[in-house]
Structures are given as structure tokens and as C-alpha cells.
Specification:
Elements lengths: L2 H26 L4 H25 L5 H13 L11 H5 L12 H27 L1
Length: 131
């Protein structure tokens, strides 16, 4: 067995262990939206750190390596992406109540959500254009 296969198997085992640990942590947070949100934020931050740091530094510098990377992206399921929940999906869980005029605090929250959604859309468009 060559060295690459051994390293690949060890990486796969380590990735499975990480996935199991994250799933266990998520199960322990079941029902606690704030803890689950913290977990999602942590995963997103890790994704960003890996993508913008180590991954970019490791990008191929020759055609053969680039071909191998693109072939892997094509065959193994595309580019990794962490999708954010849409506001409409989030609001589905709220109980239906009579409409009341929003307070100043509610307006501020709605403004922040709208800005965050606009920023996310811009980041997704930028990520897609970088592919």
C-alpha cells in the first residue's frame, strides 16, 4: 500500500471522527436554538478560515494538479458551500398572530436581517464568480 493511500485513509478516519463529534454536539444542543446557532457560526467560521487561508495557499500551480483538483470537484460533489437559512423558512416556525405595527426595536432587527441577507447574496454571487 502506498503512502498516499495510507494518508488518505487516515484523513478519512479523522474526518469521520470530526463529523461524529459535531453530530454528537448538535444532538446535545437539540432544542436550544442559541447553542445550535453558535455551532453553525463556528462551522461557518472554520469553513471561511480554511478556504481563505490554507486552501488558497495550496491551490495548484501547474496544469496537471489543477486538472486533478477540478476533476475531484466535479466527481465528488462540487464546491463546498455552507447555505444560510432563508428568512422565510425561519419565520415559518413563528405562531400566527394578529398583525401589530413593529416597534423601533423590531424595525432595527428587520433592517439588520435585510442587510445580512443582502450581504449573503453578494458573498454567494462573489463566490460563484470566483469559480
Amino acid at each position: 500500500m502506498n503512502r498516499g493511500m495510507v494518508e488518505s485513509r487516515q484523513l478519512s478516519a479523522e474526518l469521520r471522527a470530526i463529523a461524529t463529534a459535531v453530530r454528537t454536539l448538535a444532538q446535545n444542543c437539540q432544542g436550544d436554538s442559541l447553542d445550535l446557532l453558535a455551532l453553525l457560526r463556528c462551522l461557518e467560521e472554520l469553513h471561511r478560515e480554511l478556504r481563505d487561508g490554507l486552501f488558497q495557499a495550496a491551490l495548484p500551480d501547474n496544469r496537471q494538479a489543477l486538472y486533478k483538483l477540478l476533476k475531484d470537484i466535479e466527481t465528488e460533489g462540487g464546491w463546498p458551500y455552507i447555505e444560510r437559512m432563508k428568512l422565510q423558512s425561519f419565520l415559518v416556525n413563528l405562531p400566527a398572530e394578529p398583525f401589530e405595527a413593529p416597534s423601533n426595536e423590531q424595525r432595527l432587527i428587520e433592517d439588520k436581517v435585510a442587510k445580512a441577507n443582502a450581504s449573503t447574496s453578494a458573498n454567494v454571487a462573489e463566490s460563484d464568480s470566483n469559480l
